């Protein structure tokens, strides 16, 4: 056994861990970055990047077909090949080179906490002078379905890494992964059956989002069954037999898209008094609660907060800067919206669902705002402006604005429609900046763009009588 000492030790070299390590090193601290699988993590090889690569070409073809005079088709093989160009077929050498070029020490192996400021990797011990950061992400949840352990299943990794579309694909779930992968594979040639125990899709967004995505999935030929879960599974030769509502459906692959949980079961958290399998609860500077000494930090999915790559990277930037400040004895700015406060986690979390139509939402839904005790008015309108009409024939979209009537500031926004993802950051800025509705009236959208829907939302809000 050998020991090594660094100012900071980060467990997990996905985008979140990389950001925490980078910001700590920029602040003059020495950093060891520990990775058990691939540098770049889930997002780079099995999640955000490959899933969007699989979705992009089919969506572009569908968009082209909405314009007169355009003939478009796709080659599924070329789509998978383009996906491979982004994931380097699992070769992480390029990202590993970046770690070294940034002045960070990469350590290959499974990192585990081993008491105060200590991490073991195999037979080696890495001791931190100032901080350990846990950025181990999350792991899929397997639902309690009879026979589920007797058949092969896909998780998000298998779905994004497959080399061809199965003839028949079953999808269990109604969230982001389920919707995106169901549509991607339907457009790549699979016959898709989608089972959703609840009565709508995308339950974290406004209802109109799930309604329009459901209509689009059905238009793509997906057998979407809301309110119908999976009762049991069994082998059927080379196929998989799904039992649902008294019916048996055979598929060639079954995607389980039923959620994820923080990856703490094998992180050694019990050595510092925490419970394995549970999220690491943090304060807004990233410090883990329940651990004395102010040295253990966590960022990203492992915290149970806002499980999105961009939000994990945001947390990592703040935690990295907080570690640097504390290491140098500097004062921290932990007031809301301060340099060392993860305030956006509570108020302005943006998310895009890259289905066609896209869904972009940020902040609170109307129901979520009311549950938090915020008095709100909601405006919901179709996206029907010159920009959308020019963008695609038969453009079908919707926009929702949720306004705190006590302060007259937006606290939530949702856009549904072709190519609306690029509208989302304007809403994020308005919500994070708490921009008054009266000031937004003077933010003039360019004509003719889809963003003119902002004007229509504000006009509707100003003209409707307040209840």
From TrEMBL:
**What SUPFAM superfamilies does the record point to?**
FAD/NAD(P)-binding domain, FAD/NAD-linked reductases, dimerisation (C-terminal) domain
Q: Keyword Flavoprotein, does the record have it?
A: yes
InterPro entries per the record? Class-I_Pyr_Nuc-Dis_Oxidored, FAD/NAD-bd_sf, FAD/NAD-binding_dom, FAD/NAD-linked_Rdtase_dimer_sf, Pyr_nuc-diS_OxRdtase, Pyr_nucl-diS_OxRdtase_dimer
Q: Which Pfam family would be a valid example here?
A: Pyr_redox_dim
Any idea where the FAD/NAD(P)-binding domain is? 6-314
Q: Where is the Pyridine nucleotide-disulphide oxidoreductase dimerisation domain?
A: 349-454
**Which GO terms of the molecular function aspect are on file?**
oxidoreductase activity
Keywords linked to the UniProt accession: FAD, Flavoprotein, NAD, Oxidoreductase
Highest rank taxon of the organism: Bacteria
Reply yes or no: does the keyword Flavoprotein apply.
Answer: yes
Question: What cofactors are annotated for this protein?
Answer: FAD
Q: Which Enzyme Commission number(s) are on file for it? A: 1.-.-.-
Gene3D superfamilies, per database record? 3.30.390.30, FAD/NAD(P)-binding domain
Q: Which PANTHER family match?
A: DIHYDROLIPOYL DEHYDROGENASE, MITOCHONDRIAL, DISULFIDE OXIDOREDUCTASE
Q: Which family does it belong to?
A: Belongs to the class-I pyridine nucleotide-disulfide oxidoreductase family.
- Per its record, how is this protein called by name? Dihydrolipoyl dehydrogenase family protein
**Origin species:** Pseudonocardia lutea
Q: What is the lineage of its organism?
A: Bacteria, Bacillati, Actinomycetota, Actinomycetes, Pseudonocardiales
């Amino acid at each position: 056994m050998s020991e090594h000492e660094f100012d900071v030790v980060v467990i997990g070299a996905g985008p979140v861990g990389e950001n925490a390590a980078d910001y700590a090193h920029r602040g003059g601290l020495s950093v060891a970055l520990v990775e058990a699988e691939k540098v770049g993590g889930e997002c780079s090889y099995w999640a955000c990047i490959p899933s969007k690569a699989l979705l992009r070409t089919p969506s572009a073809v569908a968009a082209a077909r909405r314009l007169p005079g355009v003939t478009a088709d796709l080659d599924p093989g070329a789509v998978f090949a383009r996906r491979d160009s982004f994931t380097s077929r699992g070769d992480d050498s390029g990202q590993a080179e970046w770690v070294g070029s940034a002045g960070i020490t990469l350590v290959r192996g499974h990192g585990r906490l081993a008491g105060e400021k200590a991490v073991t990797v195999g037979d080696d011990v890495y001791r931190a002078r100032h901080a350990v950061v846990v950025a181990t992400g999350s792991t899929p949840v397997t639902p309690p379905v009879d026979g589920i352990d007797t058949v092969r299943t896909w998780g998000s990794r298998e779905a994004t890494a497959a080399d061809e579309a199965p003839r028949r694909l079953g999808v269990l779930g109604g969230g982001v992964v389920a919707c995106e992968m169901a549509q991607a594979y339907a457009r790549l040639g699979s016959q898709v059956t989608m089972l959703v125990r609840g009565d709508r899709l995308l339950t974290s967004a406004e209802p109109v989002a799930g309604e329009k995505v459901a209509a689009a999935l059905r238009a793509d030929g997906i057998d979407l069954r809301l309110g119908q879960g999976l009762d049991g599974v069994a082998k059927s030769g080379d196929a998989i037999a799904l039992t649902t509502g008294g019916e048996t459906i055979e598929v060639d692959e079954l995607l389980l898209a039923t959620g994820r949980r923080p990856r703490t079961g094998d992180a050694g958290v019990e050595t510092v008094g925490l419970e394995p399998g549970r999220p690491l609860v943090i304060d807004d500077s990233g410090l883990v609660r329940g651990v004395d000494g102010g040295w253990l930090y966590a960022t990203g999915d492992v915290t149970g907060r806002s499980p999105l790559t961009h939000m994990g990277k945001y947390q990592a930037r703040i935690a990295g800067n907080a570690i640097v400040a504390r290491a140098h004895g500097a004062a921290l700015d932990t007031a809301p919206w301060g340099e060392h406060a993860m305030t956006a986690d509570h108020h302005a979390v943006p998310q895009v669902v890259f289905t066609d139509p896209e869904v972009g939402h940020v902040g609170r839904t109307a129901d979520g705002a009311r549950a938090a005790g915020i008095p709100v008015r909601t405006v919901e309108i179709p996206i029907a402006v010159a920009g959308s009409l020019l963008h695609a024939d038969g453009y079908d979209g919707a926009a929702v604005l949720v306004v705190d009537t006590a302060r007259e500031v937006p606290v939530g926004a949702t856009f549904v429609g072709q190519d609306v993802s690029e509208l989302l950051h304007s809403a994020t800025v308005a919500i994070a900046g708490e921009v008054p509705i009266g000031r937004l009236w003077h933010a003039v959208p360019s004509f003719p763009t889809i963003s003119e829907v902002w004007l229509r939302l504000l006009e509707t809000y100003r003209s409707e009588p307040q209840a």
